[in-house]
Amino acid sequence: MGGDALVPPAPTAVDPTAPPRRTLGGVGPVGLLRDALGRAVRRALWDVVPRDQRDTPAALRRRQWVVAATLAVGAVVLGVSLRLEPGSAWFYPATLTLAAVWVAGALASGPLHLGRIAWRSRTVRPVLTPVVLAVAMTGVFTLGALVVREVPWLAERVESVTEIADAGALPLVLAVTALNGVAEELFFRGAAYAAIPRHPVLWTTLLYGLTTLATGNAMLVLAALLLGAVVGLERRASGGILGPALTHVTWSGSMVFVLPALFA
């Protein structure tokens, strides 16, 4: 204080041969890419965009009744469709019926929203990030499949699914897979999520897994729980179904190619 001048510290000599110092984000392009990916993941899965989508008490009760009835019907149709023999003429009608059940229940439950995520100083529709997440999930599931195929009992569970997919023409399989993915997200991350006031990510993930129990296939249940957790977090962050639907469709479409290749 008292008039003493502040003397800046002498500059530290830099050794040109020394390696660059590491920072929290890393060094160079790799660090920048990691930082960018980290921010993208936080925006997609964790940073909640402010919104007010609350139902009135009467609308919430109505939504909950519609969701409960749809779950009961959907579980039965799902169990029937995936227990059909590969190549059955009834497989695709049953699968499309299931999609119709999810869509009808979602639309009857009340308003649904596409959602937005933060991007710099504004909010945007989640489009690219959900696809990138799905690609990353496909990589994780591929690594898991390499382990699963070495365990006979688990490999049989996966092969029973790939047999159904192999029984149809690839374009038709992809179209039905995409349609069911959208339908499931409309219902589970749209209607069901909005019907659960507390801990909706947890409960919709469990509901999705419990519904898949109707197939009797443990590997499908595990996949449903893992997928449900990721898309549930997307729904929480964005407030809508667009991100979850894009992730679901991209991931499930990718697995149509990956699983038959690994379990041929």
Describe, in short, the structure shown.
This protein is 68% helix and 2% strand.
Low-confidence stretches: 1-8, 11-16, 18-25
Placed side by side, the strands forming the largest sheet appear as 1-2
Give the N-to-C terminal Cα separation: 79 Å
Shape: globular
Helix content: 55-70%
In total, the number of strands is 2
Sketch the major β-sheet.
2 strands, antiparallel
Descriptive terms for the model:
264 residues; mainly alpha; single chain; disordered N terminus
What do you see in this structure?
The protein has one domain (53-262). It has helices at 28-45, 57-82, 91-109, 128-148, 152-166, 170-195, 200-212, 218-238, 242-262; strands at residues 117-119, 122-124. A hairpin with a 2-residue loop joins β1 and β2 (122-124). α2 (57-82) runs antiparallel to α3, α2 runs antiparallel to α6 and α4 (128-148) runs parallel beside α9. With 264 residues, it is an all-alpha fold. Strands 1-2 form a two-stranded antiparallel sheet. The protein contains nine helices and two strands, in the order αααββαααααα. The chain is globular. Helices cover 68% and strands 2% of the residues. Residues 1-8, 11-16 and 18-25 have low confidence and may be disordered.
